[in-house]
Amino acid sequence: MTSPTVMTTAPVSPVSVPEKLLLAVVGLGLLLLLPVAFDADAARARLCFFAALGLVSAGTLGWSWWKFGREPAGVRQNNLWLRDSTGRGALAWLTAVVLTGFYVVLYWFSNDDGQGNFGPLNQLIHALDPVSQALRRRPADQWFLYGTFYTLAVLLMGGRALWKYRHSPYQRIRTASVMFFQLGFAFLLPGLLLAFQRPEYYFSYFWPLKYDYLFPGTVSYLLKDGGPALGVFMVFWGAVMSFVATPVLTYFFGKRWYCSWVCGCGGLAETAGDPYRHLSDKSRAAWRWEVRLIYPILGFIVFVTALLWLGAAGVLPGWFTTPQQSGLPLVSGLSPVDGLSKVYGFFIGSIFSGVIGVGFYPLMGSRVWCRFGCPMAAYLGLLQKHFSRFRISTNGGQCISCGNCSNVCEMGIDVKQYAQRGEPIVRASCVGCGLCSTACPRGVLNLENGPRAGRYQASQLISADSLRILG
């Protein structure tokens, strides 16, 4: 008679007193934002606002050092599924509700009423007026508040990632890259353009992600308000990056050159979303939904862009480009083709990429938008899978099936299945973050930009250590 197997669960390690204090500083900073939102005294609200940002910054960076900087370097995934904050517990749900609520209020309840009043976020927005005036020569608005919070999240959680992955040169450089592009190209440079009375242009975003950059109306606006030199350069930059640089760079480096090094959406996912990367669904059903959603979204924005240009060229019938009244508030007073772009912006640009894409980090992982909705990711993925030299090679002889690689994959790829068979990973969804390779204790996975010939063939390399394990 055999004894029954006893299943034990490793207890969650207790939180140390210094860690509790540092997290309390972060919590105090977040709570301090509440009186800012309701304080009628502008000077006092502004003081509280910057005190809150200071506490959140100091607490986050201090906690990151205490949590990761004092211990030996390496990827540790202890008790991620047992913690309330990272295992879809009550704290995770609360975080998701707060993030989702913030996006809803920002998008649909914080528009300027014409007198500088931004609704529920009014005090928070005007607390940033001195910063906005210094950078952009104009008062703050809801999008400047959003950009400030977004950039601060990338920088602070980027600092956490630098401590956590300090043993990996690839991760350090990649993290520094997304921090640089978010701060410089997505926050400071657009603000400086506004200060010089030029269009607020984001040089790190391209069509089809920034879908309106190649719409006829936006092109006309850039050429008119950007001036004869800068406006032409902006239009030229957007077109070249979308149709020339993107295929060339993806051919040599895969989609990682953009999704994991440049893109602001990816930058937030890789920094603020890092604690939730293990939550991505690895099932085949999730992969089917990925294919069903992301490629039709890409096709839709290509279709809308083509229709807009055909309409601008006078090819389409007049009724298709003439504004019409409709019972639908979202498209009333627009032409059918403009209505399509408005619908896309509302459902995909706002609800999917913002409310769901970020608000669901604590429940579905950090790359929900990138995996299921981003048209740029779909475009890059098609190039990567069929025309790129990029792949992740594996050495099945050394794999010990620990599952670390699959656990850290935010794109829902079951990397372990490839590693066990020694098959290279050539997937359209892979963003080349390299965390699977960083987390592997045996060096089984390697990011390569080799020749296209043989990129689908399994590696035949078996080391002496592997032979000892096998034999």
- Adjacency order of strands in the biggest sheet: 1-2
User: What is the strand tally?
Assistant: 2
Note the beta-strand portion. under 5%
Which regions are unreliable across 5 or more consecutive residues at pLDDT < 50?
1-9, 460-471
Oligomerization state:
single chain
Rg over alpha carbons: 24 Å
Class based on secondary structure composition and strand pairing: mainly alpha
The largest β sheet comes out as: 2 strands, antiparallel
Share in helix: 55-70%
Question: What characteristics describe this protein?
Answer:
21 helices, 471 residues, single chain, disordered C terminus, two-stranded antiparallel sheet, mainly alpha, disordered N terminus, Alpha-Beta Plaits
Tell me about this structure:
This is 4Fe-4S ferredoxin-type domain-containing protein. The chain crosses the membrane at residues 49-69, 90-109, 143-163, 175-196, 229-253, 293-320, 343-363. It holds the Pfam family Fer4_9. With 471 residues, the protein is mainly alpha-helical. Among the domains are: 15-72 and 110-195, no CATH class; 389-470, Alpha-Beta Plaits (2-Layer Sandwich), CATH 3.30.70.20. The chain has helices spanning 17-38, 42-69, 90-108, 122-126, 129-136, 142-164, 169-195, 216-225, 230-253, 256-259, 264-271, 284-312, 318-321, 336-359, 361-364, 368-372, 375-387, 404-408, 415-421, 435-439, 464-470, and strands at residues 390-394, 445-449. A two-stranded antiparallel sheet has the order 1-2. The radius of gyration is 24 Å and the shape is globular. The model is unreliable at 1-9 and 460-471 (pLDDT under 50).
